[in-house]
Every structure is written in C-alpha cells, then in structure tokens.
Design goal:
It is built from nine helices and 17 strands. By secondary structure, it is of the alpha/beta class. Strands 1, 2, 5, 6, 7, 8 and 17 form a seven-stranded mixed sheet that branches. Strands 4, 9, 10, 11, 12, 15 and 16 form a seven-stranded antiparallel sheet that branches.
C-alpha cells in the first residue's frame, strides 16, 4: 500500500502551529498536525480550585501539571548560564492553553535596532510589511484594548472594549501621572463581549490555568474547530518529533516521530514541513536532524541554528496599598492583566522595558510569606492586607548575541531516546543597563505609592518568562541567518519555521502576536508558492 503524502506537515500546535494549520486547511491543503502532547479538555482544568482544594496548596503548580507530562520539565540542561529558565510545555494548543494572552504589536524601531540604535541587526522586513498581518490576526483572535496613540505601541483599527481598571490600577494610574508615566488598558486576546462564536470573559481571573469557556484565545478553542470544518486536517497527538527526513535532493520529505503512548517510532511524508515547536524545541529538532548532506543539523549551513537565544528579562514587586486595606472581600481577580505601563523612554536602548500589572491573581495570599507571627493575629493581618494587592511585573528587552545558544547533548537523552537540549546564556552589559533602568523606575513608582512593599526587584535580572526567541533567526544573508523574511529556510526550500525562533531581535513587548503575524505571512507565501508549483 503506497504511503500517504500530505501537502503540509505542521509540527507543534501552539500559537504558530494553530495559525498555519487553520490557514492552510482553509486554503485546501491536506494538513497533518503533529503535537507532542495530548488534549486536556476544559472540564479537566483546575482553574477554579482554591489553593486549599489541592494536595500541596498550590505550591507545586498543581493547576498546570496536566500541561507538562512525563519528563518534559527535566529533560534539559543548563551550562554556564545566568539565572534563566525555559518553560517547555507539551499539550494540544501549546502555550495558548497556558498564557495571559497579552498581545502587543512591535513598533517600527523594534524591527530596525541597528538603524535606530546601532545595536544588533535589522530584521529583513519592516513594520509596514507586517502591519496588515497584525490587523488580520487581531480580528481573527479577538483582542480587547484601545489605541492610546503611543508611538512605541502601534495600534490596530478593530478592538473589543478594553478591560476596566480595578481599584489598585486606578491608584497606580493616579500615582504615575505626575511622573509622566502612562498607565493604559492592556491588549489581550480575550473577549470582553461575545465574538466568533465564543463567549465573553466572566472575570474569574485565572487565565494562566486554562480558560474553560475559550473566552481567552487558544488553538483548540479557536483555530482547530475551523481547520476540522474543512475536512483537510489530520491530527496526531502524543507525536514527539525526532527528526525531519530529507530526500536525495536535500529537500524535506517528512518527519520521524515517537508515539509517546506506544513508544514506537513512525514516519510520515509531506511536500512541505512547517516547524512550530517553540524556540528551544525547534533548535533541538533541527540540530537532531543530521545526515550526510547536513552533518551539523538541518538548515544549518550558516552554523546559526541554536544561536542568538534571547527573550525577556524581568522581575516583579508586590505592594499592598494602605488605601485599600481592610475593605470587604470582593471578587477583584478580573482577568489578570488589565493595565500596562508601555515603554515611555525611546531615545536610548536603555528604555526598552515595560510593566504589566497584576498578572498574579488574588487567589493566593502572597503577603503571607512575609507577615510575621502566627495564629489569629497573623490571619487577621493577611486578610486586612489582601484587598490592597498590587503587582508590577517588569519586562525588558534582551540582546540577541551569537554566544547565547542551544546545543544538543548526544550522550544525554530524554525518556524517548532523543538527545536533550543544552542551554548556554549570559546577560550582556546592555541587558544589565536595561534592567537597572527598569528597576529604578519600578522602585520610584513604589516609593510614591502609599503601601507596604513585600517583594522587591532583585539585584540581577531573570529570564525568559516563557518568551524566549531567536534560535533560527531570519535575515537577508544566508551566511548569518537560517530563514528569509517569509520564514523559509535558506537551505531547504520546502522547510519553514514560523515560531519565536525566527526572531532577528526582540522587544520589551510580548512576542506572541508577532509570532502569529509572521505565521500568517508565511502561509500566504506558501499558498502562493504552491499555486505557482514551486512547493
């Protein structure tokens, strides 16, 4: 019996894979979607459990445990690294099932760091080229927010009503105004009214734990139903990609994967392969795809695969506002992030940071770590402070540098016999300058707020807040990059990478909206190339 050859094989079902799968299925392509994890249906989410409902009271991330099966959390090694971590998830929908859904457009200078600031390199595309795809994606997924006319944060034309500020955010806005620091409604892929056959948010405040009504965007709740409707989608879950296979001409011909349930290796065939595994796993897959023709890994003639690892640095502080202490208990969880302090200093690279407000929910009494004593006095103090909770989470841009990289260790393998990734990363002097500016601003804001600071910014930054990017970067020169501006590999014509690993540089803004816009742009290109018979 002849082996079935799909038009396209997509590896990974997160933000990138969801866009590519839905768009190509609707264009008539027969698409095979490989996902290393499995579906966690909404009725199994534990988002509404209180800490006291769980065995370890929430101290062991029990709510998200279903998204991290097997050894996915431990099958990675850090060597010669600063205090960073990467968060690899393994579930149908990927990170879109476990995120706060903040979606911010990169600004024109974010694509031209060398031209504007003399650092790093310019992207091989401009804001003007990607702007139509930002607009299309925002309308597809449903984004709440507004145009605040801030140059560092370009806006679209169609937004759902913004999330209302809570009391602590109004106090923050009032405090920041004399400092010339804006506090605006954030933009989230979250519905504030019914949209696209999905219900509006009911403000339970647990976006990171999975949204059981799909008010927050996710691939399983939004993209896959549309792909299935075409009849062109084949989904394989628990399919852990091991290697991208090549033919005698050096083109991608399919994928070898391990079925996590049977532990058997299988192969599939496809005319086009699109890698959407996320930054670390994409580098791992390409480096593990070695052959006589590609001895250092697939699409790696430049030696750049795995290099230029970067993402967000950051830290956070907790303040308990005196003005709100002792208020009667109320449901002020909202939808987590409601407010944003966007980048407001753009004259130098040191201003590349922002603050996202209250993305830690109110279910957990964080102040209890710091309140002295025990018994009734301790409990009363914790209760009195709780209504005043305010969190500032600072995110800063990290430089893309070749020495920060992902490699593989052929002698250390995961539970399925696949060599694990090894991460090497150090913050640069420029990164430390940005962090000091971020910390100074955060401390100045806290100093003007009337409240008790229980957690402060540290002396050194951490990373990457699940926002790592850059290990298969795009560029104009095939000698110094892996992809062209359409996320097509320079070396292998029918191989594409559309996740965060494609980024040339990063920004202080969350990367997901840009990942989705790049994926949409790539699918338009794939469709056109297939129409011409080029793919």
């Amino acid at each position: 019996m002849p082996t079935l050859t799909y038009d396209v094989c997509v590896i990974g079902s997160g933000a990138a894979g969801g866009v590519v799968t839905k768009e190509l299925c609707e264009a008539g392509a027969k698409v095979l979607l490989l996902e290393a994890g499995a579906e966690v249906p909404p009725h199994r989410f534990r988002s509404h459990c209180w800490p006291y409902d769980m065995q370890f009271r929430g101290f062991r991330s029990e709510k998200q445990a279903l998204f991290y099966p097997g050894d996915v959390s431990s099958s990675i090694r850090y060597a010669d690294s600063d205090a960073i971590s990467v968060d690899r998830i393994r579930v149908l929908g990927g990170r879109t099932l476990h995120w706060n859904a903040v979606v911010l457009r990169y600004a024109p200078p974010d694509f031209q760091q060398h031209s504007v600031y003399g650092i790093e390199e310019d992207w091989p595309l401009t804001y003007q080229q990607i702007e139509p795809y930002y607009e299309r994606i925002e309308q597809t997924i449903g984004v709440c927010g507004q145009d605040d006319h801030i140059p560092s944060l370009p806006a679209g034309k169609h937004y759902l009503p913004p999330l209302p500020f809570r009391c602590s955010e109004e106090i923050l806005k009032r405090t920041c105004a004399p400092m010339g620091i804006p506090v605006i409604p954030t933009r989230k892929a979250l519905l504030t009214r019914n949209y696209d056959n999905r219900p509006a948010c009911h403000y339970c405040g647990h976006c990171m734990d999975g949204c059981d009504v799909s008010a927050i965007f996710s691939t399983p709740g939004s993209m896959l139903p549309k792909a299935r409707k075409t009849g062109n989608l084949t989904l394989r879950q628990n399919a852990l990609a091991r290697e991208i296979l090549i033919d005698d001409e050096g083109r991608a011909k399919g994928v070898s994967f391990i079925d996590r349930e049977t532990r058997q290796e299988e192969e599939v065939r496809a005319r086009v392969v699109v890698v959407c595994c996320a930054t670390i796993e994409t580098a791992r897959l390409l480096l593990n795809s070695r052959s006589r023709r590609y001895p250092t890994g697939l699409a790696n003639s430049s030696g750049v695969v795995g290099r230029y690892l970067h993402g967000h640095m950051g830290d956070s502080t907790h303040v308990y506002l005196k003005e709100l202490e002792g208020q009667k208990p109320s449901n002020q969880d909202g939808a987590l992030d409601h407010a944003l302090i966007p980048r407001f200093e753009t004259s130098t690279p040191a201003g590349a940071y922002d603050f996202q407000i209250n993305f830690a929910g109110n279910m957990f009494p964080y102040q209890a770590y710091h309140v002295p004593g025990y018994g009734s006095n301790f409990k009363n103090t914790v209760r009195r402070m709780q209504p005043g909770f305010l969190m500032l989470g600072g995110f800063g841009k990290v430089e893309a540098r070749a020495e920060n990289r992902v490699t593989i260790d052929p002698d250390q393998k995961d539970a399925f016999g696949i060599p694990i990734p090894v991460v090497r990363f150090r913050f640069s002097e420029q990164d430390k300058i940005v962090y000091r500016a971020l910390r100074q601003t955060g401390e100045e804001i806290c100093g003007r707020l009337k409240g008790t600071v229980t957690e402060t910014f540290g002396e050194r930054p951490g990373g990457f807040a699940s926002h790592e990017v850059g290990t298969a970067r795009m560029g104009k020169d095939p000698k110094t990059s892996v992809l062209n501006s359409f996320c097509q590999t320079h070396d292998v014509k029918n191989l594409f990478v559309t996740d965060g690993s494609s980024f040339t540089t990063s920004s202080e803004k969350n990367p997901t909206l840009t990942i989705m816009a790049l994926s949409l742009r790539a699918t338009d290109y794939i469709r056109e190339q297939r129409r011409k018979g080029e793919l």
